[in-house]
């Protein structure tokens, strides 16, 4: 856990969410998130978090999407104490949902492949 984010135990869920998201993302993106989670990245994290949240409101454009909102919240919560606990819990629930969808999708593909092979 990073020392900066763990004030009075409030950063535990947030640190766990950062770790799970870093592992879930492809290599360069996971490394970038790990870099942004570092203690000296506050001057980068806050503006980037706000930018991602604002950009998520343009979800209808081809390049931008709603997925930018939780990532922006995650970055912003790292440095805004009252957001740490709720955003950490929200992100963990969101990541649990993503895990369930990925497992469902893999099982569906396996059933389809088994049906085609028989």
Number of domains: 1
Helix and strand element order: HHHHH
Which whole number gives the mean pLDDT? 86
Q: Would you count the extended β strands for me?
A: 0
Features:
118 residues; 0% strand; mainly alpha; disordered N terminus
How would you describe this structure to a colleague?
- This protein is mainly α.
- It has one domain.
- It is built from five helices and no strands.
- The longest helix has 37 residues, at 81-117.
- The chain is elongated.
- It starts with 11 loop residues before the first helix and ends with a helix.
In short:
Helices cover 72% and strands 0% of the residues. The chain is mainly α and 118 residues long. The relative contact order is 0.15.
Topology:
Layout: H1 12-24, H2 27-36, H3 42-56, H4 68-77, H5 81-117
């Amino acid at each position: 856990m990073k020392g900066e984010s763990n004030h009075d135990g409030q950063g535990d869920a947030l640190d766990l969410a950062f770790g799970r998201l870093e592992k879930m993302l492809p290599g360069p993106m996971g490394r970038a998130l790990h870099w942004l989670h570092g203690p000296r990245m506050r001057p980068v994290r806050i503006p980037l978090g706000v930018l991602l949240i604002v950009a998520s409101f343009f979800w209808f454009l081809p390049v931008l999407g709603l997925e930018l909102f939780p990532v922006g919240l995650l970055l912003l919560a790292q440095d805004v104490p009252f957001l740490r606990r709720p955003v950490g819990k929200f992100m963990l629930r969101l990541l649990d949902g993503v895990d369930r969808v990925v497992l469902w999708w893999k099982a569906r593909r396996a059933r389809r492949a088994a049906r085609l092979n028989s």
